[in-house]
Design brief:
- There is one protein chain.
- The protein has 8 helices and 5 strands, in the order βααβααβααβαβα.
- A 5-stranded parallel β-sheet has the order 3-2-1-4-5.
- Helix 1 crosses helix 2, helix 1 packs across helix 4 and helix 5 packs across helix 6.
- Strand 4, helix 7 and strand 5 form a beta-alpha-beta unit.
- By secondary structure, the chain is of the alpha/beta class.
- The radius of gyration is 15 Å and the shape is globular.
- The longest helix has 16 residues.
- The protein has one domain: 5'-nuclease (Rossmann fold, 3-Layer(aba) Sandwich), CATH 3.40.50.1010.
């Protein structure tokens, strides 16, 4: 069975966006496209109701592109259990109230036993300083915290390509 990957909104946004003039963002966009083309087949990808809501916002052309990509992914739903976990991540964990949607992404991925949560959101999701608190709160709720990473970190042996560049 292939590992389950929860695709957070920033991934699909980077995937369909026009190349940025910001060098770091442009590099992350390219890494996202490379991961999507080269590594995606090795995983079972999932979105969520929240990802679809976030992807539908903004410029209508890019929203349509994001939703088109997401239409191929099974949708994980937010349940009462996931909402309670998200609230716990805010109340007792490191996630601030203003990032409630980020807490829900983590909760949905954990509650649906995803092995990975793929994101470029390093402020409130893929933040190394938050991992211990997130893990504690998630495990106390009876779930396992997915490995939270960027596409660059989930390149596997293809990551060697970037080491040579």
């Amino acid at each position: 069975m292939k590992p389950k990957v929860y695709i957070e909104t920033s991934i699909v946004s980077y995937l369909v966006a026009c190349p940025s003039r910001d060098l770091v963002v442009a590099a992350n966009q390219q890494i996202t496209r490379d991961w999507w083309d080269l590594r995606r087949p090795e995983f079972e990808l999932y979105g969520s109701e929240l990802v679809n809501i976030e992807a539908a916002a903004g410029d209508s052309v890019y929203a349509r592109r994001r939703l088109e990509v997401l239409s191929a992914l099974p949708v994980l739903s937010a349940t009462e259990e996931t909402r309670e976990l998200a609230e716990k991540l805010i109340r007792f964990g490191p996630i601030p109230q203003k990032a409630a949607r980020d807490a829900l992404h983590i909760a949905v991925a954990a509650a649906h036993a995803c092995e990975y949560l793929l994101t470029w959101n390093q402020r409130h999701i893929a933040n190394a300083q938050m991992q211990r608190s997130l893990r504690t709160a998630v495990e106390e709720s009876g779930f396992e915290l997915p490995i939270i990473c960027s596409p660059n970190e989930l390149m596997g042996e293809l990551g060697d390509y970037y080491d040579r560049a």
